Each structure stands twice: as structure tokens, then as C-alpha cells.
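Data availability (excerpt). The following record was deposited with the supplementary files.
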Amino acid sequence: MSSHSEDLLSAALAYHRLPRPGKLEIQAIKPLVNQRDLALAYSPGVAAACTEIAKDPAEAASLTARGNLVAVVSNGSAVLGLGNIGPLASKPVMEGKAVLFKKFAGIDVFDIEIAADTIERAVETVAALEPTFGGINLEDIKGPECFEIEAQLKERMKIPVFHDDQHGTAIIVGAAIVNGLLLNGKKLPEVKIVCSGAGAAAIACLNLLVSMGAQRKNIWVCDIDGVVHEGRNTLMDRWKAVYAQKTSARVLADVIGGADIFLGLSAPNVLTSEMVKSMADQPLVMALANPTPEIMPDEARKARPDAMICTGRSDFPNQVNNVLCFPFIFRGALDVGATGINEEMKHAAVEAIAQLARDPPSDAVAQGFDSGETQGFGPGSLIPSPFDPRLILRIAPAVAKAAMESGVATRPITNFEEYTALLERFAFRSGLVMKPVFAKAKTQPVRVIYAEGEDQRVLRATQVVLEEKLARPILVGRPSVVEARIKRFGLSIKAGQDFDLVNPEDDPRYRSYVQTYIDVAGRRGVTPEAARTVVRTNNTVIAALAVVRGEADAMICGVEGRYMSHLRHVREIIGFLPGVSDFAALAMMITSKGSYFIADTQVRPNPSAEELAEVASLAATHVQRFNMKPRVAFVSHSDFGSYDTDSSRKMRRATALLKEKHPELEADGEMQGDTALSAAARKLVLPHSNLEGDANILIMPNLDTANVAYQMIKTLADALPVGPILIGPARPAHILTPGVTARGVLNMTAVAAVEAQERAGRQQLG
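Predicted structure:
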């Protein structure tokens, strides 16, 4: 673990440094290409916007970015796991928070690190920012000062002020407790709650639970100085004193007996197995200290098999993670112009999160744990997965409605169906499309073999595959070379222990591999002599044979060499799915405006209409794995008959063939690129198009068009490519390109793993 941690730290520093320092940039969203644009954006045209806002301050929400702009503010006095490191050193954390806001909820953020070490200075500094921002997210400010800072700011400011360390944690804890009590049949006003820790998050959790119905007389708090009791003078403040009990008990062991809920926001290993045994029936153990909880889940479960357990870690079920709520609470608050975030809005968030956990899980969303207990609502699934794209669709509208009903909304939403539709489009445009694929891969790790096992990118990707538990790697490579390069690159993985290694120069299965090669490819011109040579020298052949023999579940190659050479071996050894005429390559492009799939970028030079329809149907299957609804556009220079050429007729016929064979798919064509990517443009050309919304699968008329579009989008849009995804092979096999990065290998590992899982599932059903 320590060596993996060192690898992570090294990788994190490189991530922050390269290719440009930091994680954020400011980008203009309006054109500024001529004198007219300049006159509109700045002088003299900007005066019109200024005048409108001066007359009516509410116009700032429609004329500036303020309504979607949040400040993440910290003085660096209590950075998670690092303590009081000061404002400058906290900046990477605040930038990270800004990225989460943007990626999860589309909210723009300025991170603001302030040199303010007193309550008065912090309040004055932040309060002065109100004209700039639509909301304030306080972060990593030590207690008890954070309580007073937030309270004063909420009193002075007419925009949402939210200390996420307090209330984000409290909301997730509240949702877990609601569902835990639902399962064990207990009532919140009646349960005994024992809390270890009395910092900002702990007190906020208790305050929220009291507002939900918990009784103060049933709440017992312990901190580093023991039980919080009446008459105690050390380490006390007015917020903690609310929970002081009249008691002679002095330590956690004295009060834990009979507790229904243990809430830990303190330090590692403070809760013992004996303490857990003394708790009430079906206890809820929330050991949230990070990275080492108050008690490890396996110890707690051994002591009390009937316990429901939550941690703050991602490698156990029921992770209490603030990212489940804070972006979406702000999304709802900003969208109605809320003047604050009140108890009603917090309660709405609690109920929305709790309800989502009780709903049937999304088909494409997995919890990311090996244990089956996380599938569906139950003790191992009290709160939703952070990978669930429905979070924004549930929390933001619930918070917005609560703001409206409680009278703090200045811009009420009039049509919630339209609002939810807007959120839904964002949820699948967020650039986080790999989340459900990674989560699904973790549920049932399969064996993925890498043909170029000596390559630096493959080795670095293997390290992360193991840390993320995405698959069981098998590398093809010479042991001495692999070992030397692992050492050179500072990796901690070991052959035979962390991954399997196939040595092409000396493998005991050599003869049987040769025979398998002759069996599958002997009728394609492969002689026994050639087979013996190839199996010694061609790593792609070795990887493909391992898949055919059932020794690997999926293969990845193409990091070195020519694409078509790898494709020839995959074709002759693995072959096609039943009914498929040939392979095709599907390239995924993750851009700032959404994720798009382009086909065929690598294989078929000039496919027929029948082939294009086949490619489209196969591509739709892959797109569904990303929790996206396939929307197919057959792209052409022609817009619904505006040209009558061989190419446009081909695309028209391909559309008709796909609709005939797969009427359930949303598809249309032939159409131009802008018509495919804009529903508004399409309505002008063909109001009754079969395709709703923006297309996400672009079927190109030939290889030239597809590959040029792919390369140009990758460069001009600074898109992150995933793939190429090879569609049509009888078993999962993917051929990358020499320009792929270690990150690209990692992404395709997850894609290949999920495909292999689904193949295995179909075989079991068959």
C-alpha cells in the first residue's frame, strides 16, 4: 500500500504540473473575432448591460455569469488530512473543488484563498464578494471559528452560503440514517446516537438530525477530551455545549452500550469490537474517519453481523462522500436565485438522496464493489453510488422546489419538466461518461491481456488497473525487460504477484499455442512452420490465442505497430460475431460540449449501405455501456435530399435499413454535420425527424471522412479520445493506435472489461 501511495503522489504531482500548471482556466463563451464583437462585449456596448443592472439588480442573473458562479473560499486552516497549511498551500484543494462543481453540475467557480486568520477578517473579506458571486462555498476552515464565520455571513449576505465540510457531510449522513432506520424499523426520535468527534462536521450532523426529529437527550458526544458533559471546562464551545449531558460517564466505552447509531468523525481505531458488540440490535456504524476509519468494516461486521456500516472510503460500500450532494444543492439553489440554503432545502436533499438509494439501480450504474450486497437497496446500499447520473436529476429539483416553497427563491422555476430535461442533457454531457464503465468493471474483474506488455504506457496503466481493481492484467513480454522497466519507471507492481506474465521466448504452453493457431488459422494459409515462428515473435497473435483458449477474457494491442497488421491477426484468430460481415472502429470523443462516437475511423474504406447499417447497430450496443441513449445520425454532405449523389443515396438507404431492422433505435439521415449535432437546426430542416435531441453516434460515409473528422475534432476541440473500440469481433479485442497515452490504455481496459462481463453473462444465460 505504501509503495502504491508513493506512485499515486508522484502521478498526482505530474497531473498538476503537466501539460500546464493547475487544473482550471477561464474561457470566453461569446465570440470576439471582429470590431463589432468588441463593441458589444466591451465599450461602448457593455454600457447597456451595466445600465440595466443599475436599474434592476436582478438583471445581473440574465446579463452576467453571476447566477452560475460560486466562490470556493478557504483560509487553509483545516485542510482535510493536512491540517492548518495556510491559504496558499490549500489552493490545489480548492481548484479540485472547483473542478468537481464544473464536472458534476456545470457550475463555474473561482477558488479564493484568503489570508484571514480571524473571524472578523474572514467575514469582512467574504461579505465584500457578494456582488461577484451567486453563492459561497466555505471550505476547510477550522472549528469552532467556521460556525461563527458561516453564521455571520448568512446573516449579512443575500446569496447561498454553505460550509460543505459541515452540511455536505450532514446531508449524506442524514440520508444514510433515514434508510438505515427504515431497514431496522426504528424511529429517529427514539434512537440513541453516540458521536465520536465534535468538530464542524460532527456538530452539523447532529444539528441536522435534531432538526429531522432526533432528541438531544438521546445524543452523546465524545471528543479527544472524553464525553461532553455538563460542568466540563476544557475544549468546550457554545456549539458543543448544546450536547453536554448530565452524566458521570467520561469515555466512549461508558456511553456506547445500547447505542443504535455510532457516528464517527474523529480518529482511526477509536471504536473497538467490544464496543460494537455492546450496541443495540441492527446498529448503524458510521465510521467516517479517513483514510482509516474508527473501526474497519470487516472488524465491525465480525463483531456484529447484523450491523449496517458506512465509511468515508471508496473501497467499501456506503461511502459517505460530499460529492453526492454539494454540486447539486448549489445547482438547485442557483437556478431559482435562492437567497440562502435553509433547513428545508437540506431536508429536501436528504430525502432525495435517500429515495434514490431505494429506487431500482440504473442498469448502467454499478456500485464498484465485489460484494453482491450493494446491488439494490439494502444494508450495503443505504446511499446512492457517486456514479449514479440521476443524482443531479433528483437533488437539484428537490432543492429548487424547497427553496420556492420556503420563500427564498427569487427566480422560481415555472416548468419543472423542462428544467429536468435541461438537467438530463447536462448529466450526460458532463465529461464523466467513463464513470459508469469504471464502476461496472470493478464489480467482476476479468482477465485482460496486453500484447505490448513491455511498453511504458501499458506498464503505467497496469499499475492503475490494479489500484482501481478494474481487471486482472496479463502482460505479454520478456520477464527481464518488464522487470527492468518497472524499476526504471518507479512502479511497484510485480510479475506473478500483481499480474501474470506470458514470456514469448519461453512459455510452457508454446506447443499448445502453436497447435491452437494452426487449428484456427490453418485454412487461412498459416503453415505449421510459420505458426511456430509467429507464436514466438508476434505478441498480438499470442494475446489473441490466449483469448480464444479461454486463458484471457479480453485483449488489448496496437500500442506499437500498424493498425491493419494487428487487425489481420485478430480477424484470422478471433473472427467475427455471428452475422457480422466485418470489423469496424468506433472512436469516442469526449469534448467540453459532450461525448460523441464516430464510425468507422479505421477499417472499412468505402462501406455499403448495408455495412453502414450494421456498423450503426453494433455501435449502439457499445454506446449503451456508457449509460447513454444511442442517437444515430447518418452524416453526409446532403441534408435530407438536398443533394442527389451516390454518397447521399447510400446514406439514405443505410438509414432506411437500420430503421427496418432496429425500429427501437433513434436514428435519421442523411444529414449534414451541424444538423446532426443540433436539434434546433434539425427542426428547421426537418421538423418531424425521427431523431430527438443531439446525435451522439455519427456514422460517416467512408473511412476518409470518419478519420479526418476524428483527427480534427481531437485537435481543434482538445477532445479526449477513447478507443478505437473494435466492434464486431467474436470475443472482446481492441486495437489501439501508437499515439495512445497510458490514460487511453486505462480507459480501454475498462471498456474491454465491461464487454467481457456482458459476454460472460450472456453465455451463462445461454
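Summary of structural features: The chain has 30 helices and 21 strands.
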